[in-house]
Amino acid sequence: MTCLAAAASACLQLAAPAWAQSPTDATAAAQSAAAVPAMKDRTDAVTLQVRGFRVRDVGHYPEAGIDPPRMQAVADAAFAELAQGQPVVALRFDQLQAVADAITRAYRQAGFIVSTAYLPAQTPGPDQLIEIRVLEGRIGQISVQGAARYRGNALSAPLRQLQGRPLRKQDVDAALLYARDLPGVSVSSVLQPGQKEGETDVVLVASEAARPYVITLGGNNYGTELTGRYRAQAGITWNSLLGLGDVFAANYAYSLAPQQSQIGALSYGLPIGSVSGLSAVIGASRSELEVRNGVFARLGLKGPTSIVYTGADWKFINSQTLQLQGSARYLREQSKLSALGMQLSDQQFDVAELGLSLRRTDLRWRGVDLLQVSVRQSLRDRSAPVDQISPGRDSYFTIARLAYTRLQYLTRTQRLYFKFNGQYSDDTLTPMEQFAVGGPDSVRAYPVSDALGDRGYYTALEYHMDAPGFADAASPFNGRPWRELLELDVFADHARVFAANGRLTPASFDAAGVGLTFRLPQYANFEWRISAALPTGARNASDGRDDARIYTRFGFTF
């Protein structure tokens, strides 16, 4: 954590309260004869007869290994080492302090970085037990510096939940991770002595991005002859529009050659400050198809597809090596298709979806795991009674989906990717819900959505190399090493789709290919990607091509 270690020592001046360091006027006479005087009056020339220690003011934090029995055991073990089997032993003040220091170390090792055990001024009773007290050091005020667009309470919300609790490094680190998840800002922390005795204040230092928005421009050839082979894309993301860490995003894509489709999407997310990692989301997307060229032009095929949704996301585990997020969505989806002025289908469903996503950093084997699991359930079928596109579909369906990616680092410049994406349903689904095979994110030797199925899976294995043979050589682009700019990869794809009713023969798809990615971060984060793949199985593409299929895209981010 930024500045925690340095600031901890500054906070330790509050380790022992004032009444433990110097006696009050009312008790000065009594403490003048105390066996353990105020700290300023202690000297190692004096010894005390000690039978043991009694530890007070210990909180209950069993998950951290801190509770009264365990801290008493630490003191008992330290006394046993000093006593060497004797029931009573004469100890100097520095030896007494060493026992308190052992308890302090136990707290520090558990992450309580400002907690301190101390010896208050006292007169031992007939039991000859020395009292040790613990000042756990609680979190006091939370303040924010450097924020202009962000509201201070939005940045400090994760840490405000820790106010009044003992300052534990792991808790503050976790809260800072939530603050750092907020878009368009980076956050560091500084500890300083609190305004109240026994408290430590936390100062959050915010560094906001130069602009609150990010603009993306790009293009690709991910379309088909029916929808338009080329697409121009534009998007904007506005971070913290209300100063609350909210995110508004708008994206638009327009097809070219031929100009027969367009896609637009809007989304908005708003963090719920009272619960760390919780945010409400709402969004909509719409695509429109109108065939005006090619063999289907005379049919006048047209039809919009739209989705409106609302829900929530909750990242309930957030650490450096593990993040778990749950999601819930309520969706209203619709797909229409007409030809020759007649409606062929009007499919409308209300759908509920629950999902779980995981990201795990594998430090031992130098890899990253990404996992997504979701279940979709239709709640209401509002479709038109006549459906000539999917006449045998089920009105109510359940779908389970799974996606997994493993990124395995081999060397500094070499990586392996394993990908799996699958869907299972016992119901006959509409095209909106079916599993699609083919395209730049599936089997790359086939056109987009070359085949659909109620059930299916896709898997891929990829080997990536950064500028093989000249990774560390300086490039002509501001001297950046080539490994930061150029990436080559080879891949193999496999997919299979099934019909839930078993009436269609399962279809298999196989392909292999190569790819190249070129980046220029200093030039508006320019990135260009191209891949070429050939079918390696017996399955023919729906467009009749059997040569290498090339997918390419480029983009700028401002």
TrEMBL record:
Residues annotated as domain Haemolysin activator HlyB C-terminal: 198-460
Domain Polypeptide-transport-associated ShlB-type: start-end pairs: 71-137
PANTHER family linked: HEME_HEMOPEXIN TRANSPORTER PROTEIN HUXB, SLR1661 PROTEIN
Protein name: Hemolysin activator protein
Record keywords, A-Z: Cell outer membrane, Membrane, Signal, Transmembrane, Transmembrane beta strand
GO biological process terms held by the UniProt record: protein secretion by the type V secretion system
GO-annotated cellular components: type V protein secretion system complex
Entry keyword annotation includes Transmembrane: yes
Pfam family, one: POTRA_2
GO molecular function, one term: protein transmembrane transporter activity
Listed InterPro entries: Hemolysn_activator_HlyB_C, Polypept-transport_assoc_ShlB, TPS_OM_transporter
Transmembrane segments: none
Signal peptide: 1-20
